[in-house]
What does this fold into?
Amino acid sequence: MLKDFILPDIGEGVVECELVEWLVGEGDDIAEDQPVADVMTDKALVQIPAPYQGRVTKLYYNKGEIAKVHAPLFQVELEGTTAAADAPAAATETPMPAAEVPSQGMVSQDFILPDIGEGIVECELVEWLVAEGDQVEEDQPICDVMTDKALVQIPAKEAGVISKLYYQKGEIARVHEPLFALSVASSVPQTAQQTTAQPDAAPVSPTPISAATASSAAGNNSQAATAVSAAAPGKALASPAVRRLAREHDLDLSQVPGSGKNGRVLKEDVHHFLAQSSNAPVEPQRASQPVAAPVAEQAGARVEPIRGVAAAMAKQMTHSVQTIPHFTYCDEFDLTELVALRQSLKGEYEQQGVKLSLMPFFIKSLSMALTAFPRLNSRVNADCTELTYLPEHNIGLAVDGKLGLMVPNIKGVEQRSLLEVAQGVNQLIEQARDGRVAASDLSGGTISISNIGAIGGTVATPIINAPEVAIVALGKLQTLPRFNADGEVEARTLMQISWSGDHRVIDGATMARFCNHWRALLEKPERMLMHLR
It folds into this structure.
């Protein structure tokens, strides 16, 4: 039996990835959990393993191409099913529910329940809005499902006839498994073995509905549209087919008025918008031409696409600068005693296989300071009406990794010993430099450290890693002359530190007090003993 491997959800908000390298070829036998491909998202390099044993019959992408999440990545002939393929269909037993084969000229496709929320792997089937045998249109709501966060309405990705519903009302449906089967028109005769979705089939975009909206949608469509818009500002509601049509015409869907339910953009809306645009004056196009002209005139200019981690960093930093009012606070730390303490402990840590740098001291002492000033370990909502204090200190560390700048974080620093923090730092740095940081390590951070001094430089104005409210840049260690308490000049080991804070949450006085508290712990490291748990 031939089976398509559907590329699963590989990270929060990730909808596509670059195929970096195939680790197998067509015709190769593979074992369960064997690595098949390396793909690069906008966050990390991810290795895709085989979920079952068999033989690779088709690779749907070439190296360097962009693969879509929830679309087929490769095809496998499952082991032990070759002989069974020639047997009568009645004698074949499939491991998952299969759609009934419709009449000639139609093909039945399983609708795979897509990712419907961060960390959600299953949902309750609340109500079917259609029945088997019903004719449905593209974008027509098919069912309501309830996650642990919201009521979600699942639309059809194309027109057809419902051939099978795989779940009863009240049952639990699994994400990335068939939800229903849809018979659609086909230009060639299909057989029972051709019921899998084609490689270019795009995933459906579920429409989240809050509980309050779901109960009042029938009575007030305008309120429902407002609620949906608030849930996803700046993003048009549209099916994958409509989005694909918009991409083909280089069209921004947010500019297209939607005539569907809750403002959903339909194919007719796109065609109507394009027809209107074709009759519009062309002066704006002529006005934009001089911008591109200088690039074209430069002989030998090289154009390089911005992808993966670099693209994600560009978007994240742009968003942070545009939405967060930054302010900078700088100070000088005398780390002479801390450097001596680290040197005295270095040998003991090496015996346990741990490289001890100054970073674990910075991270652990920062957590202690956050306990005294929890406002710097908080998040503010978009309207600046609520401040959420976070119980865990998930401290991020900016790393210049193989794929570019990454900010993995160490979870729960407030509960870790200095040794455990050092182990976590070494592990994250090694993974980031190899480009294989887990998605969970890249999310959930509460405050960040950028160690620019490891490369060079003393003072910086770091950009806050939203939705965090502060970030600190550590300058390089310098041995400089300073006056002691007796007025004598002596050599001291100094570091310049530079804070950027979210002025909506933190004022200058709070930042100064917090920084003084942190400096006291680092300049007299024995004070950390008072705060250790």
